[in-house]
Amino acid sequence: MDEATPLTALIAASAATYVWRGAGAAFAARIGVGGAAFEWFSCVAYAMLAALIARIILLPSNILAEMPLVDRVGATVLGLVVFFALKRHVVAGTLAGVFAFVALAYARELGWL
Amino acid sequence: MSEKPVRAPEPVFDSGLVPYPNRLRAFWGGWRDAVGLPAAVLFSSTLGFGSIASKADYPLSLAVLSVFTIWGLPGQIAMVELFAVGASILPIAVAAAGANARFLPMTVSLLPLFRGSFRSWNWTYLMAHLISINTWIALTRRGPSLPLDQRPHYFVGFSLLCMFAGAAGTALGYLLAGALPRTLTLGLVFLSPIYFLMVFSGVRERGGVLAVLLGAVAGPLLHMTSPEWGVPATGFLAGTAAFLLDRKAFGRG
Q1: Residue contact A20–B75, C-beta within 8 A
Q2: pTM assigned to the model
Q3: Which of A63, A65, B19, B54 has the smallest CB count inside 10 Å?
Q4: For A97, which residue in chain B has the nearest alpha carbon?
Q5: CA B152/CA B236 separation, integer angstroms
């Protein structure tokens, strides 16, 4: 097959993504809220999202891979500690994790770590 | 005479949330709720995507358009990366499908909130296109407290602002590729996973908690065996395990 052009690549990826959404809408029309099928799909959604987030933090494929695992996990743990210490404060936990991560990155850049 | 408390048909996660006076206000309410961390997360993660697209020599206009037509960052990144190595459309479609498979269970678990919102269920096929982690979280939280006829307006308002933030982030990331200081880029890219981690750490229903924990442990392991399908496979396996544990082991259902 020929190489994709930017436009055909976009159409292919858009259609492939929408297939899941369309299938989801078709399923959702047939199942009842609070039923077993609904709960199963919700559990699968939660597990898949958690898997994606854990994968991005532990096995990143982007620029995050340039930072050592211990820094990514350390900043994440600090964020979680702040989050739970402040009664599940999402903003505080997020900012704590991000600032810790940036501080670690900066410290490494300066050669302190 | 005491009546048995009637069980609410849908869980309300945040008490104290009240409906809007009308549907237009619901739209702007959703729009405004997206300003802040949801938009910031979209903006910062699409900065990274824009920079990847620029390095892949993928056109800026189509990279921005992909925010609206794909609306799922892992699939967008897979598309651009495969385009860069000269792949044909079939592998691109397969990779995007693998990277964005989460939309199937997310759609099934979100759309029932719209049951009764529309005269025709066909409209939910449009709502399905707007689903992302951010918008899914927003409607899961706010939707149950809104009347059925305000939910689509709230959802569209929230989603549109998120999409615009994503489009702006993509464009800026494309134009600034390589120009941002490294530590700043690292912080911006780290914002999105850490934010969603906090959100999902706040899940309280037992089935959801089990699913999040099992998924977080199994996800990276299965990803090592299959980078393309590890995450969807984890969702299926860990989600099913969580569902069965919740029902059987804890004696419910």
Answers
A1: no
A2: 0.89
A3: A65
A4: B194
A5: 28
